[in-house]
Amino acid sequence: AAATTTTRPGLAFSQDGRNWARFEGEHHTGAVFDRGEDGAWDARGVRDPKVLLAGPRDIRVYYASIDARTGKSAVGLALTADGFAYSKRGSEAIFGPGPSGSFDDAGVAAPCVVRLGRDEFIMFYEAYSSSAPGVASVAVATSRDGVSWTRPSAPALEAGAAGAWDQGGVGKPYAVPMAGDRIRLYYEGRAAAGDERGAGVGVALSTDADRFVFARRTSD
């Protein structure tokens, strides 16, 4: 039963953004790379893949998996020079849950990595805390190489106030760098913790004072 529900990343091409053709990867399922072997941290599957074009012949796929050994989600990295043949970087996750008592001690997921400069990578990710089961927030980690990360001390965007459309949590971040060193953050908002049914899409903008502090954009 486990094999039938395992998720793996695929690849598709399009010339117009509307009509797509699947690329058949080397794995027997057609996936471009596989989950980890039994006992590996990502043995349960590959979820939420996001591609970063980091440089010439430097294409990176950041992904999440629930670590079979801990039951907590972590972030991994696969590398490719041509977009077709992939290899995982190392045998462990590159970014895992925070220490006990932190805002992300129950798991990290849905990574979205953006390169802002030669030596500056930022990763937006979905964070879970053991103190609020199922309620996700969005946090931002920083790195000089896109592999070793500095964890923030607090989330950049938290669940909405009681009664808000996103009171159940915010996640699935997608960041777009804007002019003036600001960042536009699209995210999934949930009405109930851990329940994506009826989820919607929200947008927040970084503030002038701090590009890692975000304010929701509300309808006029």
From TrEMBL:
It comes from the Eukaryota. This is Glycosyl hydrolase family 32 N-terminal domain-containing protein.
